[in-house]
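Final report, Chapter 2: Outcomes

The project's central promise was a pipeline that accepts a single protein chain and returns its three-dimensional structure in a standardized token representation, suitable for archiving and comparison. That pipeline is now operational. To close this chapter, we reproduce one record exactly as it appears in the project archive, with the input sequence first and the structure output second.
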Amino acid sequence: MVRVPNLTRADALSAVRNPLAFIAERWTPTTRTVRRAALAALVMSVVIVVTGGAVRLTSSGLGCPTWPKCTDESLTATSEMGFHGAIEFGNRMLTYVLCAAVGWAIVAARSQKPWRRGLTRLGWAQFWIVMSNAVLGGIVVLVGLNPYTVAAHFLLSTALITVAALMWQRTREGDGAPRPLVGGAVQQFVWCLVVAAVLLIAVGTVVTGAGPHAGDSSEVDRMHVSWENVAKLHAVLAWIVVTLTFALWFVLKAVDAPRGPLHRTRDLFLILLSQGVVGYVQYFTDLPEALVAVHMLGSCLVWIGVVRVLLALRERPEIVADVPGPATESALTRA
């Protein structure tokens, strides 16, 4: 048994003033723990998107008709609110699970020795995005599921996934200066892929905003565009992303790029093919709810794949402290 030190009054005051520093002084997580914490935050950022989609697909968007309470009289869903109230309130509760995952990532990053300040900042960036999106989610409810606010809600969730994926990648790297693994022309090509993927996701929110799944069984305003035409534009952008990814793989092979960029590009291509199959099947089967949910998950995985391809174009080595050699040590001794 490990003896637990007594907590003095000074320790208690220190914990109140700066709890993160207090924990960091007494706990040093392993590198694996920090990576798992960052991965947990990334996984939960994807889960909250999928469950949010479930709220919309089950027409439970106004299951709790107000915010921050579920009703004017109750903080939680009541039995009278039935299935829709339970779904909407359950999704709200998952926000606390997401906050816990992000909090664990922050604590683990802050407690790592040596302290990597950049990792901690990425954790705090996730926290503030979660808080902002929680407020935006409340506004979505208060304005009756306005499709433009719903689209903004999803895009902010995508920003959260971006930061979470970046933090997870940074836990697997050092803090040295980035060193490119490919030439400038290839990097520019990948940035074209990133821009195309951003447009693909943005147009996807318009398809959602104009499509039949409004998020509630009551009359909800939709984006006044033809969702079928927008869906076709979305498909064109998807093919552009697929083509760019396929071309990137050949370019990386031609320039004899390292395995990292090649493998990340291959992974993205496979994800895109799977997502394309789901997209076409759901389009020709009148958007069944289950397939739409799978497509939302695929959207998150596609974006994570794009971010990983971008980050794979460089490496960041560990910072190694200068160790005096024999000659230096002799000089220091003589001095």
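Archive annotation: The first strand starts at residue 179 and ends at 180.
This record, like all others produced under the grant, will remain available to the consortium after the project formally closes.
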